[in-house]
Amino acid sequence: MRDKLMQARWQRRDAGDEVLTPFRDVTQYNNFYEFGPQKGDPACHAGNWQPQPWSLWVDGEVARPGRLPLDELLAPYRLQERIYRLRCVEGWSMVIPWLGFPLRDLLERVQPSSHARYVRFESVVDAENMPGVRSGFSLLEWPYREGLHLDEAAHPLTFMAVGLYGRSLPGQNGAPLRLVVPWKYGFKSIKSIVRISFLRERPLTTWESMAPQEYGFYANVNPHVDHPRWSQARERRLPGRLFAPNVIDTRLFNGYEEVAGLYSNMDLRVNY
Ligand SMILES: Nc1nc2c(c(=O)[nH]1)N[C@H]1C(S)=C(S)[C@@H](COP(=O)(O)O)O[C@H]1N2
Ligand SMILES: [Mo]
């Protein structure tokens, strides 16, 4: 893992017009409800959480199901750096330099069967180290679950991250392995993944099962489709200062227009 991170560091690309969100903000302003509901809770409770050993289970409609220990999972890949915007459904955003590999490389390896149409992801449940899991007050059910259509999972932008800013993922950002889907609201980018299942039917996801009118399965970033309780037309790009919030226009698909073809036959207001 260490060697892979060193190698990847040589490939750092510039972020175009975007300014990278400082490491400090990326790692101290987080949503990871297993570690608590406040933005500072994950840094506080997961800062030293490096769960090991880690394995990823692959099951369902797939030719090569089974358990992949993290080292084995990463062995064939040369890590890439991807600088992506991350837009949270709450109305803030960041620009983060991730390290990892495209999810499609894993799909090719495990070979979903012809029956597979959806992919479901599950996060780890580690009650001992996760105060949000122990709390009786959380609105969410564990494990945290997310899902994608197989075509979305196979899109070249869909990424599995194992690091950020040239180092391995901090606990609060989803160590040791998390999904990053840059054209969707941040809640789709599930952290600390232990299981990937290939399914015939669309899976029910954590946020959709909690409030289906507010958090749809697709969750594509869209300035024209408001959340029932707030507008999605604009966003606060972090870091901002209290009296100078850095507010910018939100873009369709978070600016990643190359994914539009995935939804050409879909009414984005109905399939939000
Ligand atoms: N397991 C799990 N994954 C999760 C979450 C969570 O609470 N639990 N929060 C999501 C939300 S709402 C966002 S905005 C992003 C935040 O990622 P970051 O903290 O690395 O910026 O993680 C997503 N992945
Ligand atoms: Mo979010």
Keywords:
binds the ligand Nc1nc2c(c(=O)[nH]1)N[C@H]1C(S)=C(S)[C@@H](COP(=O)(O)O)O[C@H]1N2; seven-stranded mixed sheet; five-stranded mixed sheet; globular; 12 strands; Protein-methionine-sulfoxide reductase catalytic subunit MsrP; 272 residues; Sulfite Oxidase, Chain A, domain 2; binds molybdenum atom; alpha+beta
Strand tally, please? 12
Euclidean distance between termini CA atoms: 37 Å
Percent of residues in β-strands: 15-25%
CATH homology group: Oxidoreductase, molybdopterin-binding domain
Reading the helices and strands in chain order gives HHHEEHEEHEHEHEEEEHEE
The shape, in one word, is globular
Bound ions, cofactors and other small molecules, one mention each: the ligand Nc1nc2c(c(=O)[nH]1)N[C@H]1C(S)=C(S)[C@@H](COP(=O)(O)O)O[C@H]1N2, molybdenum atom
Give the class from helix and strand content and strand pairing: alpha+beta
Largest sheet composition: 7 strands, mixed
CATH architecture group name: Alpha-Beta Complex
* Broad CATH class: Alpha Beta
Uncertain runs with pLDDT below 50, 5 residues or more? none
